[in-house]
Design brief:
Layout lengths: L10 H6 L1 E7 L3 E6 L2 E9 L2 H10 L10 E6 L5 E6 L7 H14 E2 L4 E2 L6 H11 L5 H20 L12 E4 L2 E4 L12
Antiparallel strand pairs: 1-2, 2-3, 3-5, 4-5, 6-7, 8-9
């Protein structure tokens, strides 16, 4: 695992190592980094992700993507160097994540995933979801989401953008890879 380091001396050097385009989201684009197959360069306009990335540099998180550098770029955009995450989850896991995202959000209380920490709710979800999905997949997703939410809470990270398109896999764990800076509000 890489800890806090200075990969390149200047933004121009970062950009000169920008490799093949990997993907695009609502606020940014991701590129391979020539010579660093386990890292990516993200150019984003999401200031909250930039602020969160700066706070997470060197933390070596297990369930949140690791960031190694974060710098302002052009007006209103930022460069981030972060772990390369497998973003192609099996369809079963994507479906479970999306259904849980809808189920676990309490619109009246306006906080995410309190359901994940309620034993009775979890029992109901497992029973309900195993009619359509393998029980091991349902339990895996629930356990992994609990760990992601705990790590987000420990690092004051909001999960407002918490859905299957922002969750990937690394070393057998689900990883939250598009993070914001606001404090997470979970009642346990």
């Amino acid at each position: 695992m890489i800890t806090k380091f200075k990969l390149y001396e200047s933004i121009n050097e970062w950009l000169s190592k920008k490799g093949k385009f990997i993907g695009k989201g609502g606020f940014g684009e991701v590129f391979e980094i020539v010579g660093h197959p386990n890292l990516v360069l993200k150019i984003t306009t999401d200031q909250s992700e930039y602020e969160t990335a700066r706070r997470l540099i060197g933390k070596n998180t297990e369930y949140i993507v690791n960031y190694y550098e974060a710098e302002p770029y052009q007006k209103g955009s930022f460069l981030l160097i972060m772990d390369k995450i497998n973003t192609k989850l099996p369809q079963n896991l994507n479906n479970i994540l999306d259904e849980l995202n809808i189920y676990c959000y309490d619109y009246d209380e306006n906080f995410y995933y309190k359901t994940l920490f309620d034993a009775e709710e979890i029992e109901f979800v497992i029973e309900d979801y195993t009619e359509e999905y393998p029980e091991k997949d349902v339990k895996y997703v629930i356990e992994q989401l609990q760990e992601i939410v705990k790590e987000c809470k420990e690092n004051d990270i909001d999960t407002n953008d918490f859905h299957s398109k922002n969750i990937g896999q690394r070393n057998g764990h689900l990883i939250f890879f598009d993070v914001g800076a606001q404090k997470l509000n979970i009642k346990q």
